[in-house]
Design brief:
Blueprint lengths: L4 E5 L6 H15 L5 E5 H8 L5 H11 L7 H14 L5 E5 L5 H13 L6 E6 L2 H11 L6 H23 L5 E6 L4 H12 L2
Length: 196
């Protein structure tokens, strides 16, 4: 099987994490000799806030106030993981990484530095109303109406420029997947997009 490089994009509630995990499970079965590295910063930051360092306390305060973290922090989080675990042989699955244009440019430089062939950007398209309903049903501590509305606006204003950066970049295979399907239907589209 060819080496997979996949970057998931989509608003909160679009199913990025679910699809990324399904993809990793699928790759483990179909290509058991090759490891997959899953790079997801959201949960990593939630875990990091409990580490007790000065930086983690500042991150916790910023997240509690709904502030954006400075670009160096998510870049530090995922580049550290690449530095520690990546040997050049693994599948790379990015989820919720590169949410701002500045970070998108750094991720682009990393993928091209590592000479990853045919990297794919998978944009899980889902309208606000559907995404909001999914988040409310999910019921995580930060899935409250006001916070959800803020995240939806943030996606349009801050994340879409990063999405469009990759969409215009000919180095990437940019695929839009209809996120308003069942989980198995979306996953079938994901596999088709990746040619697996």
């Amino acid at each position: 099987m060819k080496q997979i490089t996949c970057v998931f994009f989509g608003r909160s509630g679009s199913g990025k994490g679910t699809q990324a995990k399904l993809l990793i499970e699928y790759l483990e079965k179909k290509d058991p000799k090759r490891k997959s590295i899953y790079i997801e910063t959201g949960q990593r930051f939630r875990d990091f806030t409990d580490s007790g360092t000065y930086t983690s306390k500042k991150v916790k305060e910023a997240l509690a106030q709904g502030k954006l973290l400075p670009v160096f922090l998510p870049v530090w989080m995922w580049t550290g993981l690449l530095n520690d675990e990546y040997t050049g042989k693994e599948h790379l699955i990015f989820d919720g990484v590169s949410r701002l244009l500045e970070e998108a440019k750094v991720l682009d430089s990393a993928i091209q530095f590592y000479e990853r062939e045919t990297p794919t950007i998978l944009f899980l398209e889902l309208h606000n109303e559907k995404a909001t309903a999914r988040l409310i049903k999910r019921g995580r501590y930060d899935d409250k109406d006001e916070k959800i509305n803020e995240r939806m606006k943030w996606f349009e204003n801050d994340v879409m420029p990063a999405v469009n950066y990759f969409k215009r970049n000919s180095y990437y295979n940019f695929i839009t997947v209809n996120g308003d399907q069942t989980i198995p239907e979306v996953f079938e589209d994901v596999k088709k997009a990746l040619g697996i």
